[in-house]
Design a protein that fits this description.
Length: 659
Amino acid sequence: MANRNGWGRGRSVPTGSPQVPPDSFVEQANVADEDVYATFDEEWPACWERAADLLSWDRPYDAVLEDDDPPFYRWFTGGRLNAAYNCVDRHLEAGRKTHAAIRWEGKHGERETYTYRDLYVAVNEFAAALRDLGVEEDDVVTIYLPMIPELPIAMLACARIGAPHSVVFAGLSSDALATRMDAADSEYLVTCDGYYRRGDAFNQKGKVDNARLALEHEVETVVVDRLGDELPHVLGEREWDYHDLREEFAGATVDPVSRDAEDMLFLMYTSGTTGEPKGVVHTTGGYLAHVAWTSHAVLDVEPEDTYWCSADIGWITGHSYIVYGPLALGTTTVMYEGTPDYPDRDRLWEIVDRNAVDVFYTAPTAVRAFMKWGEEYPERHDLSSLRLLGTVGEPISPRPWNWYREHVGDGECPVVDTWWQTETGAILISTLPGVDEMKPGAAGPGLPGIDVQVIDERGEAVDPGQIGYLTVGRPWPGMARTLYGGDDQYREEYWKRFSDPDAGEWRYFSGDAAAIDEDGYVTVLGRVDDVINVSGRRLSTMEIESAITDVEGVAEAAVVGRSSGTTATEIYAYVSTEGGFGPGDDAVRETIVDNVETAIGPIATPDTVVFTPELPKTRSGKIMRRLLEDIANGDDLGDTSALRNPEIVGEIQAAIGED
Ligand code: ATP
Ligand code: MG
């Protein structure tokens, strides 16, 4: 028994009633073998050959896993391959050169299709240009581009010549860019003049100029002209125009550089939701095998599909599931430059309809927005091409999950709630849509071969339904190899807390809190810090949020604790509503309080309910609870420039003041 106040004591987490995938889905699913879990366990780690078999290797690997120096695991050692070859060339050789690789949808309705042949030409020409600029194998190339085709082209061009890329999300500041380039000693940058943000031409090059001033080393910079006459720019010293370079190297080909499986493919920073972003290192073999396998088994991607992940490539989701996973499988991947509500709130559904999208993958924050806007928008379009829906990035509670399945998936499409992190590289927890029943509100079991455990402070498995630490007990191919900050930081951050090196036991700690049910289904409850202690009871803020968002008319909620030191922790609930109920709407407030009391108990009753038009979000769309906690506690908020909607902070502070 866990101690009374410690981890491992909580209450059962509500999930919706189980739902089964339709037979029509199961019959065609890439993975429908119910024994797949048992097989992976029996054959572990050789089971991962299935993932490696999805790739083309220049030289076969000698061992699937080398684990003599934990937590520094090496996968598919001795194997050699090239990621760009796997994502492009081999599909041409397979006779699929006219198949669409990328369908790009521009902000203002522009459209471009790159066949695999077009992509091959672009990647080769740009790879030749990068080489000519001096990029050598293992040089880090920074890419600071919005969602335009040149972004995946640049990534694949780097991969082709064995130069790791470091993509910096285009919306980040010049400081963020400079810090990342400095940390990686990156002397090459691919960027653009500007791009459209909320309808206006936004100057990206200006941010780049500032970043370059802050750097001590010289930077060769390639500039994509995205805005033409709308935003004239001049190229200075060490600056090159992307299109001129493409012309200069028209028709050039570059042999893909054969990379060791353990060579770095890219460097990527985490979203920074909980603090300073961490630079995560991913390798060529294990990462590519794992993203290809999960695209195949979880997202059920088939080569003939049109697949759309609406994330930004500037985050890991876009790396793994817009670029590398789908292209490794030779499918058509849709890339969208704009926002879901421009020119109208049916924009995404218009794109699904026109492209006959088969599989759609998005974030819970987007689903909650769709729900807030209403079903009339998806109803305007024919969404019958959809076969599977997915979410990633935050917990999704049963109501939005059901809404998504009902109004986007016509009540038919399976929905996969996929849990993973920048550090895990690929999906680790989800249902397999061709095998498992779904439980809205729970992501699912650990995938085959993934040893997910929810444990208490002492490392013991918590009882079903209780809150614990989300950990992973065995390595997996897509795992980060280290942090750019160094091996020590990597060990400290993820492996120290629950490993016992003397006993030879190693366990990865995700930093997330979770509960697990009798069937091994995991409900991720957010960050460990999002669990608050009220009168000696551990309460998951996400559980309270789920009870609040269950209330008809509530769109989103974020719950934090206010702890004044002397008095008991007070619960603050920030709520945004579908119809814009005002702060004075006591009926909604009462329903919220009632619902929390019924679902969890009076101990979880919010002391303060703050209505706000929106919740503060990170640039990757996650609710910034850390900031809301500071607001509740009256603490210094520090720098809010990392927010997507910084203007909301003042409104929330004013709303609290009125209360
Ligand atoms: P940082 O690590 O810098 O604070 P971050 O954790 O937000 O930033 P990411 O790696 O992009 O950066 O996000 C991973 C996190 O997202 C997970 O640790 C988890 O908290 C959350 N997450 C992802 N998918 C899910 C999911 N399906 N259910 C619940 N939470 C999820
Ligand atoms: Mg994280």
